[in-house]
Amino acid sequence: MSAGADGGGAAAARSRKGSSAEDGFVPSALGTREHWDAVYERELQTFQEYGDTGEIWFGEESMNRLIKWMQKHKIPLDASVLDIGTGNGVFLVELAKFGFSDITGIDYSPSAIQLSGSIIEKEGLSNIKLKVEDFLNLSTKLSGFHICIDKGTFDAISLNPDNAVEKRKQYVKSLSRVLRVKGFFLITSCNWTKEELLNEFSEGFELFEELPTPKFSFGGRSGNSVAALVFQKS
């Protein structure tokens, strides 16, 4: 999945008032597979014609933030890393350039995986695995990852018009399945606050660290437009 800089993406579809949604989110096309298939079909065509890789969800700063955390905590370069909803795969490229050698990107959009493959090939990288996978309906082959990363996929699932609450619960179950015990889950969200994410991932996961994100001030109050948390599977 793909979007703009920090604080962008799916946040515009959020509403805490006047919404019939159980969790306070207004259902949106941003939560549907059809939307993302169309997005990546366009981005794939643009890449083929102009070489433009497309936008990066939450911007380059978000990628640097995650890689710096992995460096700070001395995550081994051979640790297995799963990018959930990899979109154009640009983050996979950055991980590979940093030296990580066991990297997998999944997305439920075949066009996203085709685009990722084209970008990775252009970069001359060969140590990245790509799979068309629906994270809510996984194959049996994905398991045992040391690190799982989400930049906007949980946000999009939260906006699905078809029973988003149950889909969020299934997401947590899938995460528990693919991440090994004591493994780390790094999530960046523009729709959920720290407190809300702690509640969503309360079963089987513990907060390990909150990552610094850009702050904003409005009307004498300040806050963060993006939440970035690291959970550890218990």
TrEMBL record:
Gene3D superfamilies: Vaccinia Virus protein VP39. Residues 1-26 are annotated as: Disordered. Residues 1-10 have a biased composition (Gly residues). It catalyses: L-lysyl-[protein] + 3 S-adenosyl-L-methionine = N(6),N(6),N(6)-trimethyl-L-lysyl-[protein] + 3 S-adenosyl-L-homocysteine + 3 H(+). Keywords: Cytoplasm, Methyltransferase, Nucleus, S-adenosyl-L-methionine, Transferase. The keyword Nucleus applies. Residues 79-209 form the Methyltransferase domain. One of its GO terms (molecular function) is protein-lysine N-methyltransferase activity. Protein-lysine methyltransferase that selectively catalyzes the trimethylation of EEF1A at 'Lys-318'. This is EEF1A lysine methyltransferase 2. It comes from Sciurus vulgaris (Eurasian red squirrel).
